[in-house]
Amino acid sequence: MDFLKKNPSLPVFIAVLVIFTLVVTFLSEAYGTGALSTSFVKTLGKTLCLALVAIAMDLVWGYTGILSLGHFAFFGLGGYMIGMWLMYARTKIIVVESMVNAPIPPTPSEISDAIGSQIFGVVGSSDFPLVWSFAHSFWAQIALVVLVPGILALVFGWLAFRSRVTGVYLSILTQAMTLALSLYLFQNDSGLRGNNGLSGLQNLPGADAISQDNISIWFFWASAFALLLTYLIAAFVVSGKFGSVIRGIRDDEARVRFLGYSVEGFKLFVFTLTAILAAIGGALYYPQAGIINPAEIAPIASIYLAVWVAIGGRGRLYGAVIGAVFVSLVSTYFTGGQAPDINLGFYTIKWVDWWLVLLGLSFVLVTLFAPKGIGGLFDLVSGRLSPNRQGAPLGPDKGSLREEEAEQ
Amino acid sequence: MLRRLVAACLLFLTCALMAQAQDRTVQDVLQEHAEVIVKSSRKTIAPAIEALAGSGLPAAQDVLQAWQSKDMWQRQSDGLFFKAEKRDSKTYELFDFTTGQSVGTVEKSDLKQLKPNSGIRAMIGAALVQFQLNDPDPERRRAAILAIQRDGEASHLAPLRESIAQEPDPDIKALKEVTERLLTISYDTDEAARVTAINGFKGALSLEARAALNPVLTTKTVYAEDLPDTANVKRELRAGSRDLSASEGYALMIAAGALEPQPSPDARKSALEAHIKDGMVGGVPVAALNTQEARDRAYVALAREGVVPPFDPSFSIEDAVTGVRFAEVYAEPSKAVTDAAEVVLSSINRAVGLNQMFDLTLDGLSLASIYFLAAIGLAITFGVMGVINMAHGEFIMMGAYTGYVVQQIVPDYTVSIILAIPLAFAVTFVAGVAMERLIIRWLYNRPLETLLATFGVSIALQQLAKNIFGTQARPLTSPGWLDGALSINDVVSISYIRIAIFVLALVFLGVFLFIMKKTRLGLETRAVTQNPRMAASMGINPDKVNMLTFGLGSGIAGVAGVAIGLYAKVTSELGSDYIVQSFMTVVVGGVGNIWGTLLGATMIGFLQKGIEWFNPSNTLAAQTYMIVFIIIFIQFRPKGIIALKGRAAGD
Amino acid sequence: MLSYESARQFCGFQQGNMEVKIQLKATLASALFASTAIASGAFAADCPIKVGVLHSLSGSMAISETTLKDAMLMLVEQQNEKGGLLGCDLEAVVVDPASDWPLFAEKARELLTVQNVDVIFGNWTSVSRKSVLPVIEELNGLLFYPVQYEGEESSKNVFYTGAAPNQQAIPATDYFLDELGVEKFALLGTDYVYPRTTNSILESYLKSKGIAEEDIFVNYTPFGHSDWSKIVADVVALGADGKKVGVISTINGDANIGFYKELAAAGVSADDIPVVAFSVGEEELSGLDTSNLVGHLAAWNYFMSADTEENASFIEAWHAFIGDDARVTNDPMEAHYIGFNMWVNAVEAAGTTDVDAVRSEMYGQEFPNLTGGTAVMNVNHHLSKPVLIGEILDDGQFDIISQTEEVPGDAWTDFLPESAVLKSDWKDLGCGMYNTETETCVQLKSNY
Fold first, then answer.
1. Which range is least confidently modeled, B247-256, B407-416, B547-556, C1-10?
2. Chains in contact with B, counting 3 or more C-beta pairs less than 8 Å apart as contact
3. Host H or E run for residue B92
4. What pLDDT score does A7 carry?
5. Which residues pair with B271 in a beta bridge?
6. Could you tell me which residues are beta bridge partners of residue B621?
7. Is the pLDDT confidence value at C2 over 80?
8. Contact at CB, A335 and C96, closer than 8 angstroms
9. Which residues of chain C make contact with A76, given a CB cutoff of 8 A?
10. Within 13 Å, how many C-alpha atoms sit on residue A185's CB side?
11. SS3 C389
12. Binary contact (B573, C60; C-beta < 8 A)
């Protein structure tokens, strides 16, 4: 009960999510009236995954004060890990089928060679690289979804926090990590098919007979469920004493350290936990998108993630969700060429051309005039207002909590 | 007696041919070979060129030159060839080759231009050598020598040697002498002359010398058990060593017939398929053939029956090649020549290696200066003021586009560059000041938010550039005097544009140091950065200082954009290519210190070139490993190479 | 008269465009607000006939793909002026996948299920095609892909109107070997699938032509690479053993500008080290000063300088449509021109836009090339087209110095051991990946 009291938004969030899931299900082509096309259901499912990773970002940035520009890298890694199994298993079924009619039954190494040349023939090679060692096993790859980004975050975080790299330096460092990872994956020699990435992920192995109408709604359910769990985990983490400590770290790291807390340990835990959450989001996202390639991991994706959280309102979990859902759906609407042109007489504004300008300027406006983001509107509803301190800072640190955020 | 008779006959024949040739015009020769000339393929063109060059007709040189420069046209109506000159867009005036007279003006649609490809042009060039070596025009003589260097043949040797003595121009004479020695190495029959010529190239770095020497030393690895004694052996080899793998040795033995090849797995598999009887092969059921062992067992059984070639499962390539002699053998039979060439070439290679290191150093230096130039503006806004400006790359881009726009208005490239540099500074200075006034000054206490807001500006500016200039890359052309490269020798060279960038980087370093250390603005900037309140109470206006400093940093980024646009390309994504590198340059070097930025750029530039040198086939890997190195480096020196100490460090 | 004509055209285009937009708006509204209006599109499916255009209008690929979108709008407009198709007007449905590969799959699904288009013309990069493939195959759509690509693919639902490696890379390499006498090769490429696959095909082809492995230098650079000094120096140094060096470039997009600038600065003339490029066309050359590059080569199936009646009228129509006489035409535009006209003829022959019926009418379709001769659609879904090699001129155009007979496109290359045994025949064998050794169909769907 204490938990709920500390998180008044939790029941509302669960209710909204459940109702949304039910509505989408009853309007889907598979289980309902068919008013929502399958491609739109996929878009909604993907948006839920983005909301999930936005919660992770909010935990690490909004609550702990680490502006990580690398969480989309973990998201992508999760996608790669599940994608390897999907590609391998699907190709194996095709290869085994085509070999059934051969006069002599194939040896295991012949099967594996044939799978290799099917998967890598596209990029001009045919041998399995070492990183595919576990691709044959579903459970091993599922474990890797958690382990690979987790260990990367652990090692990277340990090195960075140990050397007391903080603030914008850490941001630039995480950005460098993202860039290095995407450049590495861009190489064909990395063994993950370079620029082509892994594709055809929406075709589940052995599920050829099942329509994408059904598969899309299953993934939608899974994404909604994962989002719910993530929200619960995040709410649990930020509500107890642990939450107080990490917020303390955000506001004044040195003071928390003087109080005897192991700041590095707390940061490392949050960094790694959120990396794992992001990876799970990615593992659900990319089978719906159908393709993952290194461009997904480019540094700009991680910056967008930060922007979603900023626009939605950081330091509150539902803010992150709102930001991710709002910006990505509006973005889809404008870049889809579906928004009507505005004719000014002398010039016609085509949204395809001007949407990014608008988005860019809206970051500026949100940071300058609405640091609480869209989530701040809920404070108006609940009537909570910040005390007026005439701009005096609350703590000595640069980047520490401003007065607008203090009242929570 | 007999010999004299033959000689006389030959003489007579030659005279007769000459006499006949007098009656023939060059047009006849062309018509005889009209088919291959029109077909214009290097594989079939040789007889036509030989016939023209050997015709002895005075017009032959003209024809060849016109053909080579694509000025020869064929009239469609009668198939005759003429030299043509353009009159206007639709008509050409034709000239007869023999008389040089105009034969009228013809519609383009009735003409077909002969377009010899560069392979044929080189052959024509080689054929022209005999006419051009003693041509009064020095440029033609030079062209003839280059044609020999490019496409020399044995027949050039004699005329070249003759022409050296009468060469008036000392430069061309030296060129002819070198070329003569190159030809001697490749084509002379006299061993001693070749050795002398080879020794003449000791320590020479030119590409041509290496190109002449290397073919002399071509070797082939062979199975050496039955090698003839006359063979010019470079060295003996054992299979399984670094230079010759066991499987290569095995292949050589099979090629030499010294070993019966073992059937390959694929061959064995298809043999098994061919001998399936009632679901069994060699006593093994087909369904059980899904392992290699079972297949081998079945195959051995078949081999025992004698229906397939024998196969020994215990056969190993390593055992088969052990103790067998292999050798590397020169294609060149003369040992004296190869020995001399080995000695000279190894001296050349040492010199080339040294020069390559030097060239790599120049490349590294050039890359470092580009990174430095891209980062120096950031060294001011981020390094000195502590403002994270993600739109820094877009300021670089704006500078580059300013250069492009100026070039559209001022067509003279030199003038336009001179104009573009201050203009780019002005444009980005204003943009920087505007951004500082409107956005950044509200966020001085919130650096992470500055990052986001300026990122917003960055994507908006990028998209604006796309809307205005389009997504296509725009040309920004350097003036003629920056074309080409400074070549110290055939190995070491660097383009002038890179030298210009290097100089510009040095100038900026100087300007930065001067402003920071010697001017009032520099003093005030340093004061405001260290303690804004104290500075304010000393009568400095921190707002104004911040504004000017930020404008300065942005302005420098704009000028850097002009330079970067000159050497690479001008697109809306130009800036984002440099932004992460620039930040890393500043962070690695150490924030707040221009020397640190310089060191950071140098380290990153050299590191990248060094990694590229280790792995020349993958430039992407070099960039990846460089970033990984930087990440690790920052772990151990979080404050960069030159860390500020004491109060200036801020914390 | 002329101005009246162009004004009418302009208005016609505007109107068409508006219709598209209104349609799109309606669809989105129905999708977003979950009304049941979605089905209304399905009733009118027969008329107008909808042509989906799936080209990026924003992002990094907009530079190339926007032109193709305009070319498609022009072709649709021309067809409507001729009286449409099967008595219906054609309607272009334009969507923007924004150079985002997953978005290509999403937009393709939207075109096929929400807009119910009858055919899609689109894609540029291989990775975007691979992203779209599963969707097109699942929903039995029809895609015309207009860009030269690496081959090793033959989907039942895709017609490849661009060049396969044997229609561009192999003839260009033959030209190097036979005509220029090149003995040592530098294969420079941007690090992605097209250069990788093309280079591995070329490597094995060159070895079969007796070029030793050490005489083939391969280098991959990232997209947008700008620092070329070391690579150009490496290429020049290859000439040290007296063999003639040639560069085969699969460098993509912007990176070419820096590469050619460095080449010019190093004084590398086409006579010393010729460069043949597979991704450099008229559009790319407009971004740089070509006076120092005269004589370097490019291989395509089309050059704007082709001297034929058809080409002249195509260029004229293009300039009139786009309202700018400086705009160039290029190879993928010709591919769309051929593909679109073939599709129109196939629909007329079939009397319906049904994908399976149209597909079986496509085999053997003939249409005149803009460069002369006739393009033929083969049963492996690739075209027979002539191969052209052009030398760069100082005005940014190409001088065509070699033009072959029509070469049939080969889905599976003969120069890689794994694919030499494969062939594609959708008409008689009904299989795009048929193993001629085991005489079985390896798979009906494609590799993605």
1. C1-10
2. A, C
3. strand B91-95
4. 76
5. none
6. none
7. no
8. yes
9. none
10. 23
11. strand
12. yes
The pLDDT confidence band at residue B574, using thresholds 50, 70 and 90, is confident
Q: Is residue B292 part of a domain?
A: yes
Model pLDDT for residues B266-283, shown as the tens digit of each residue: 888 888 888 888 888 888
**Which residues in A261-324 belong to E strands, given as ranges?**
291-292
Q: For the residues A29-56, what does the mean pLDDT come to?
A: 91
Q: Going by C-beta distance under 8 Å and a sequence separation of 6 or more, which residues neighbour residue C7?
A: none
Architecture of domain C166-306+389-408: 3-Layer(aba) Sandwich (3.40)
Task: Please provide the average confidence, as pLDDT, over all residues in chain B.
Answer: 85
Distance of CA C402 to the CA centre of its chain: 21
CATH number of the domain located at residue range(s) C2-163+307-384 in this protein = 3.40.50.2300
Short-list C267, C301, C256, C266, CA closest to C396: C256
> Could you tell me where the DSSP H helices lie in C51-116?
62-81, 101-109
> How far is it, in rounded angstroms, from Cα B543 to Cα B541?
6
Q: Nearest by CB to B276, from A103, A106, A353: name it.
A: A103
Of A171, A189, A364, the CB nearest to B456: A364
| Count of CB atoms situated within 10 Å of the CB of B9 | 10
Whole-number Å distance between alpha carbons of A70 and A60 = 11
- The answer to whether the CB atoms of B568 and C220 lie below 8 A apart is no
C258 with B494: Cβ contact below 8 A = no
In whole angstroms, give the CA distance from residue B500 to residue C310.
48
Residues B155, B109 within the same domain: no
Q: Do A353 and B636 touch (CB under 8 A)?
A: no
- C-alpha distance from C326 to closest chain B C-alpha (Å): 14
Question: Domain tally for chain B?
Answer: 5
Taking an 8 Å cut-off on Cβ atoms, the answer to whether C257 and B367 are in contact is no
The reply to whether B567 falls in a domain is: yes
Partners of chain C (3+ Cβ pairs below 8 A): A, B
Sign of CA dihedral B370, B371, B376, B377: positive
B270/B289 Cα distance (integer angstroms):
13
* C-alpha distance from C394 to closest chain A C-alpha (Å): 33
Same domain flag for B231 and B210: no
Domain carrying residue B165 = 133-216
Confidence of residue C21 (pLDDT cuts 50, 70, 90): very low
* Nearest alpha-carbon partner for C307 in B35, B75, B81, B109: B109
Closest of A319, A323, A238 to residue A274, by C-alpha: A238
Distances (CA, A) of C418 to A124, A125, B525, B586, C162: 10, 10, 67, 50, 23
Yes or no: say if A47 and A125 are a contact pair by the CB < 8 Å rule. no
Alpha helical stretches, state H, C351-389? 355-362
Q: Which of B159, B190, B216 is the last residue of a domain?
A: B216
Between B214, B483, B498, which is nearest C242 by CB?
B214
Give the separation between CA A308 and CA C58, rounded to whole angstroms: 21
Query: Subunits that touch chain A (at least 3 Cβ pairs < 8 angstroms)?
Result: B, C
Given the structure tokens 């978005």, which residue do they identify? C103
Phi and psi at residue B547, in whole multiples of 5°?
-60, -45
Chain A residues closer than 8 Å to B630 by CB: 176
Identify all chain B residues contacting C272, using CB atoms and an 8 Å cutoff.
150
Reported ipTM exceeds the 0.90 cut: no
Question: In this model, does residue C337 exceed pLDDT 90?
Answer: yes
Beta carbons of C110 and A296 less than 8 Å apart: no
User: How far apart are the CA of C379 and the nearest CA of chain B, in angstroms?
Assistant: 30
Strand partners, A342: A349
Which chain C residues have a beta carbon less than 8 Å from that of B44? none
For residue B118, the chain C residues in CB contact (below 8 A) are 180, 270-271, 274, 295, 391
Q: Which residue has the tokens 């958690």?
A: A146
Residue boundaries of the structural domains of chain A = 2-298
Nearest of C286, A333, A356, A365 to residue B465 by alpha carbon: A356
Instruction: Tell me the average pLDDT across A125-143.
Output: 88
